[in-house]
Design brief:
The complex is a heterodimer of chains A (about 325) and B (about 575). Chain A has about 325 residues and is of the alpha/beta class. Chain A contains eleven helices and 13 strands. In chain A, strands 6, 7, 8, 9, 10, 11 and 13 form a seven-stranded mixed sheet that branches. In chain A, strands 1, 2, 3, 4, 5 and 12 form a six-stranded mixed sheet that branches. Chain B is mainly α and about 575 residues long. Chain B starts with 14 loop residues before the first helix and ends in a 13-residue tail after the last helix. The chains are: A alpha/beta (about 325), B mainly alpha (about 575). At the A-B interface, α1, α2, β2, α3 and α7 of A face α11, α15, α18, α20 and α22 of B.
Chain lengths: ~325, ~575
Amino acid sequence: MKTIVSAAALVAASLLAIPASAANLVLYTSQPNEDAQATVDGFMAANPDIKVDWVRDGTPKIIAKLQAEIQAGNPVADLLLIADMVTLERLKEDGKLLAYKSPEAAQYDATLYDADGYYYSTKLITTGIMYNTSAAMKPTSWKDLTKPEAKGLVTMPSPLASGAALIHAQTLAADPGLGWDFYKSLAENGAIAAGGNGAVLKSVASGEKAYGMVVDYLPIRENAKGAPVEFVFPSEGVSAVTEPVGILASSKNAEAAKKFVDYVLSEKGQEGFVKLGYIPARNGMKLPEGFPARDTIKVLPIHAADALKNTDQDLKTFSGIYGSN
Amino acid sequence: MQFSARSGNSQPAWLFPFIVITVLVLSVLPLARLAMAGIAAFASGGVIDVLSEPSLWQATYYTLVTSVLGTIVSLLIGCPFAFLLTLTDIPGKGPLSFFFVLPMMIPPQVTALAWVQMSGPSSPLLKALSLAPPLGSPQPLYSVGGIALLYGVQHAPLVYLALRAGLMTLPRDGVEAARLSGASSFRVFRDIILPLSLPGIIAGAAISFVSCTGNFGIPAILGIPALIFTLPTLIFTKFSAFTSRTFGDVAVLSGIIAMISVAGLMIQDRALRGRDYRVIGLSGANAAFELGVSRFVFTPLLWAILFFMLAAPFFALVAGALVPAYGVPLTFKTMSLHAFQEILFRQAVTRTAFVNSISLAGATALCLLVVTVLTAYALTRRKDAVSRFVASLIEIPYSLPGIVMAVAFILVFAAPIPFLHISLYGTIWIILIAYFSSFFAVSLKPVVSAFHQLDPALEEAARLSGAGFFRRLSDIIVPLIAPAAGASVILVFLIACNELTISALLWSAGTQTLGVAIYNLDDSGSSDLASALSVLVVLMVVAMMLLLELLAKRLPKGVVPWRN
């Protein structure tokens, strides 16, 4: 009998050991793991009474997870910190977001947040070109990637896996000098599109490909660590996403979520992003090392409402050219 | 006699109904729900949309091609190992067998990561050795061939184990008779051993094929970057682009995988039926062949194969964890423990993943043990058609791909449970229940084999002396089957701890498992962190296997898979 009792006790103990989520806040984010951890650590240091649990995945995947959970009647996330405003605009229109007017907004350009307070940009993430330092050509323009020197050597993230990549494709496609024809000639030159920005970094840094379209902070950071990669801001300009933060209407802890929004917009929170190597969205902040002066970075325009309306069609066009699933 | 209707059967009245209900919940309910969703999709015409998508047919094609090629590779690797380690006097059988079975226990995405780190221009190991291919060389593993090769490595142990089980029962006197009549070793092998081992080879091939069709980790890491989608990865990407149709689409897709798996098992059944391989005489063909001088060829050959299958990828994985950034060659100067520090001391996710995986695996192993002891008791005592039917129901979830079971449980628990209004989807409990379902058969097998070796007279004597059911269980049965129970716990723990396919669909905030954490780290571009975590997981697997090895002396034959 003793054996059975002790076995039963063991079973009970092992069931109890399964952690029930004890966090006050759940953050869904598309930041890389180390950055997500640093952001959450910074917030928890400033607000020791709030525990934050976080989940990281590409923006489209994280939104899919959220949609599946909403459909199942059990949305877990309180907060989103994901790549682009277009996605949050869609959630806002679906009534899934909570409006909150943060006092920190005064320090931000009016174009960088939603006037009703549904979401706020936290940083500027541009997409330019990275190249492996042993590559023959040093690209300076997007069109360099269609040259014979780059044949079969170009990779880019898929808009199906990355929010930044979607905005990037929509920005370049809407540019009169580039357009979908640019993407077609890239594809004819043997360029591939698969995975997220992390995959592009890996592929170029490792030398599997020589050139890649990628978000700025990855190669700039890896370069500082000694990786054989360089980042360039092409002459035509770069696309940009602003990694906005928003609170879900279904949040069970909206007060704590508001504190999180205030924190990432505050000077301290923004300094954290600078330390990680991001261009901060807040006015009057210094840029991280490795970046040119902010006024020299030419950002190509994107019309958020058009982008939102065309998203499905653009994804189809892109998949048509690159055959991605 | 009041027990005369079924002699020796004095199980409490609640026992069999309890088992039937458990099996209903764990096997019948999810599969019935999946079938219903499929039928509903058919009825609403939505299935036409799914079936007319080229991506579906392409994924089915890739699933079949990679699985068939993978099975061939696993036969090519597994059969020679089985023949040499079972039939010859090759030295070092114990360690060879232990290491050869190791890949089966390592999570497939770790295998894939290690091989990626080992080959192609990205390999820190090759860079350190100045052997890396030039800029622009494709990673050769991101291809159908690469996927098939790793399927082969991952599943070769399955072929090895299936074939070896058959070889162990080969009649020794047949071989001796042939020898005495002057047959050469080659003729004995061709005319006696090979025909008799065909059932084992077919069984191994079928198990390997079914495992290939359900594998997620390998095509996820090697296929997605090259836009090669198999059915499991297609289901996963469908979930990553969630629409209102997703639940239905995914039900149809998992129905297709389930059909392929069942077809594979039926072909095996068909191939084995109609062949009567009953053999008379002494079994146990230990060292039927003496290798003689050729052992100096075979011994290094087997160790060399193991080196390329295990040691080289593992070193590559360690190298990938130690480099400070991509593309930096590994030297004593560049080496850094940053990734291990980050994984162990900074990342909340990896801590959560360790806690989740270990407690999920522990809870699965221990809870299932309680159920399996009762189930094995009832099934071995009853021996009627109903209990055989129940036993085969327990097998089904294990033989179906994990992703199919995950989808089935999502369908069961997507909506809040009626009356209770509790939602399990998005919590850790849905993963736990899916694990119960998938690993029930794994847990049951060692315990049943221990029950078969039990002398019923012991229990009978206790019963006649008036001992109740629980008394007999605790004083007689449990102590006698304890070693097998221990093996069952360790096996389930090992498999559940490294699981990815089920949890890849079911995880949510705070419920990441180790498999999911490794996959997501690699996916986000942090392959140094993914490698570091993988290294820790491999070390954990080896430690658990050594624990089983220590336990092996006290276990019934056949419980520790790699032992003779």
